Amino acid sequence: MNPSHTTHLNPQLGPRMAFSTGLRLLRYYKLSLPFAPTRLQTLRPCASELRFLSFSRSRSVRPVKSRRREVTAPAAAAAADGGNGSVVVKDGSGGNDGGRVVPTELHKEATEAYMAYAMSVLLGRALPDVRDGFAMHELGLSSRKPYKKCARVVGEVLGKFHPHGDTAVYDSLVRMAQDFSLRSPLIRGHGNFGSIDADPPAAMRYTECRLEALTEAMLLADLDQDTVDFVPNFDNSQKEPSLLPARIPNLLLNGSSGIAVGMATNIPPHNLGELVDALSVLIHNPEATLQELLEYMPGPDFPTGGLIMGTAGILEAYRSGRGRVVVRGKTDIELLDSKTKRSAIIIKEIPYQTNKASLVEKIAELVENKSLEGISDIRDESDRSGMRIVIELKRGSDPSIVLNNLYRLTALQSGFSCNMVGILNGKPQLMGLKELLQANARLQYTPSKQDRNLEKSCLNENIAFFCISSNNIIFLFQGIIMGLDNLDGVIDVIRKASSNASASASLRKEFNLSEKQAEAILDINLRRLTLLERNKFVAESKSLMEQISKLQDLLSSKKQILQLIEHEAIEVKNKFPTPRRSFLEDTDSGQLEEIDVIPNEEMLLAISEKGYAKRMKPNTFNLQHRGTIGKSVGKLRVNDTMSDFLVCHAHDHVLYFSDKGIVYSARAYKIPECSRAAAGTPLVQILSLSEGERITSVIPVSEFSEDQYLLMLTAKGYIKKVSLNFFPSIRSTGIIAIQLVPGDELKWVRLCSSDDLVAMASQNGMVILSFCDIIRALGRNTRGSIAMRLKEGDKMACVDIIPAIMWKSERGSEVAQGRGKRMKGPWLLFVSESGFGKRVPLSSFRMSPLNRVGLIGYKFSSEDRLAAVFAVGFTLADDGESDEEVVLVSQSGTVNRIKVRDVSIQSRYARGVILMRLEHTGKIQSASLISATESEAEEDEAVPAVLDAAVV
């Protein structure tokens, strides 16, 4: 065909589009139509009679050739009559002159033909019928016993019910025999029927199969009693059932999946017992709500088990027909070696439709690519007893973190997207759980008076079949009884007859019998001509008449019908009990967040004055002795100094308080981890800081408790207490923490409770020790009260909280002082800007209200000032000494970490001892307190006794 001519087929189609569309249409009619349902063949004429017409009159049109048959174009004159891109359809009744020509436009013809094909796929192939859950019926071909060769079964299917090849039939048969594909397999296979590793089944000539007992009881029980309509098969050579008389909705029991044209279905499997219970609830109460049904059927039950995470996806799927169910594999943690504390993750179940072999390969690939850390070995130890995948972990690896990474990166956690679409009243429809149950029960057991053909009751048809059969038997018995009552006459008629046909005709004429009654009399043998046999016929006829009467009463009572339905369903449930395999986890969502795959390890946060932050491991700075130079915390920007140095955990909420009284929040792990020598990350990349705003205090919070408060102290000495409950949800732009007076700055923030003590100190060494409960709790947008009466030239230096458990344990105790005797804790640890420090017993200070001058805590020289004060002695060693450590940071970024016990205990007026030598590193900028841990204690053994050289 000349492309220039095809442009006139449809103004909306280009030359190539029109040409390819025409060929596809021809090929569809030639090749696909013989395999389509019969109703499609009656919609359109034969494809060989299609012709394409060009609108052009001046040029001839080449014939269009398809793969099998040449299709010639009509003459140019005929093209003129049917122009405008039409398709001419000619019937086969005559030649070119005598045929009936039906002109139609190409795009309309293509649309209608494709729509007919699409509806054929939707209704007859891909989507299941809600009445029995099948789109094509291939059961009933293999009797329960004995086993039949699968090749023989496939041959029967191909010859009777299936128009496609043997591969499609055998694949369907294999799937119905796999206990990891169907919740209740319909076929019992003998031989290799594949595995959960996606191993292919053996060839059909090597396998055998038969129907499961459940299949016959659930789907085929009354198939031979005229309970369903039989329709012609694909080639109109035999009859096949239009549906199966299902007693249990197989659509929900085993689920269904199919992809049609522009529509798909994906229904999860369910537990047989729970399904029957939900059906019973709906039978007793048609107005039952979805919540009432969920009490008996809480969710899907997958063949491979697993854990269903939360009910949100189930509720949405059952309510609207669409939803996503998150399924995790079932795992255990086993300890491999108690000495090394090495453990392993054992995978016992995997999500539905997950390939076990692919899962193991994926895990191995992630470990090899360093995407998944903490795994030393993986092996599959699955056997006939069950699934067992062993994932050995490295020493020190957190099993929960590795497991969360497996959930996040592999198919060990996957989602099942529910799309519950089925054929209802001849139309595809999206339905929820209640609609599916109602449709199944109504279509099978309560016929509609409006359309009996579409909604025919299997139960009613079964009863009607029994009544008709019984009436026929009674009618025959009546003829036999009449013959026995006139036995002599019957014998005489038979003797005079010349043949069987004449004997039957004579009996019908003589005793007014039907043909079947006459044949029944002729078939009676002599031994049944006794009086006893006559009485048996009479009794059996009476019994059948009574049964017919009861069944007719049953048909007239909807309540009795529903009772019979429930009885049959419960009978199947009791005969084939099965426990639930998939268990529901009470969780909001199975979705993993970033925090779920990050270990909640201890970490160090270092923040500079210009707003640079970095996260480091706790062992970055080894323990050193008092008086050493220390290690550098890393490179600092020009004119930048260290501002804060604290210890927290990766999952903590870190509250950042700025000098403007604004608080920001971010998880601790949000700060990138880096080495000690790195400069760090600007906080403006993590927080939405305004121009010129500086972070002055950082508070890590692991839990927002009701009895916890934030104590805030400003540079001008204003103090206030705010409940921690005001800060669990902080927007990205921050919220107001305190109202400041002009020229004031928020400098210090500490966590406290009402029973704690607060120790405030000025730069000149004056100290106020007071109770936290005397400070009234205020809202966020308030200023607070005056904390300390400062002398001229003095400023606030620091504040610290003394936990109640610390000061209450030592309250009222006698403090022994003197040479050779050690004072008992707790103590206040003072650190000066010049690197000196000391410990002063807490009992040396008396309680004082706010807005006072305070007591002398440190006697400084004119050039020195107080840098920090801490309450120490909260954790004690066996000898009663402090088991804590202090980290000192100089303005140049040098860090020194020393034991608190190495700091001398002195009086309030003493000068202290050297904690850190500050030759060219400026003054002490900040200090942090660390509680010693067992791991750090082990590390101390490897640290040299004296570090003579500093690492800069």
Describe the structure.
With 952 residues, this protein is α+β, with helices and mostly antiparallel strands. Helices cover 28% and strands 24% of the residues. Strands 31, 32, 34, 37 and 38 form a 5-stranded mixed sheet that branches. The radius of gyration is 45 Å and the shape is elongated. The two termini are 84 Å apart. 36% of the residues are buried. The N terminus and C terminus are likely disordered.
Can you tag this structure with a few keywords?
952 residues, alpha+beta, 5-stranded mixed beta sheet, 23 helices, 47 strands, 24% strand, disordered N terminus
Determine the mean pLDDT: 77
Low-confidence residue ranges: 1-85, 136-142, 442-456, 812-822, 933-952
Largest sheet: 5 strands, mixed
As a whole number of angstroms, the C-alpha radius of gyration is 45 Å
Helix content: 25-40%
Number of strands: 47
- Tell me the structural class: alpha+beta
The total count of helices amounts to 23
Principal-axis shape: elongated
In short:
This protein has 952 residues and is of the alpha+beta class. It has 23 helices and 47 strands. It is 28% helix and 24% strand.
Provide the fold topology.
Layout: H1 3-6, H2 15-32, H3 38-41, E1 50-52, E2 64-65, E3 70-71, H4 76-81, E4 86-90, E5 101-105, H5 106-126, E6 148-149, H6 150-160, H7 166-175, E7 187-190, E8 208-211, H8 213-219, E9 230-232, E10 239-241, H9 250-253, E11 256-259, E12 264-267, H10 272-284, H11 290-294, E13 307-309, H12 312-320, E14 322-328, E15 330-337, E16 342-349, H13 356-368, E17 375-380, E18 389-393, H14 399-409, E19 413-419, E20 421-424, E21 427-430, H15 433-445, H16 458-485, H17 487-496, H18 500-511, H19 515-523, H20 531-555, H21 558-575, E22 583-585, E23 602-608, E24 612-616, E25 631-632, E26 642-649, E27 653-658, E28 662-667, E29 681-682, E30 695-701, E31 709-714, E32 718-723, E33 735-736, E34 746-752, E35 757-762, E36 766-771, E37 777-778, E38 785-786, E39 796-802, H22 804-810, E40 827-832, E41 836-841, E42 855-856, E43 866-872, E44 884-890, E45 894-899, E46 913-914, E47 924-931, H23 934-940
Parallel strand pairs: 13-22, 32-37
Antiparallel strand pairs: 1-4, 2-3, 4-5, 6-8, 7-8, 9-10, 11-12, 13-14, 14-19, 15-16, 16-18, 17-18, 20-21, 23-24, 23-26, 24-29, 25-45, 27-28, 27-30, 28-33, 31-32, 31-34, 32-38, 35-36, 35-39, 36-42, 40-41, 40-43, 41-46, 44-45, 44-47
Helix pairs in contact: 6-7, 10-15, 10-21, 16-19, 16-20, 17-18, 18-19
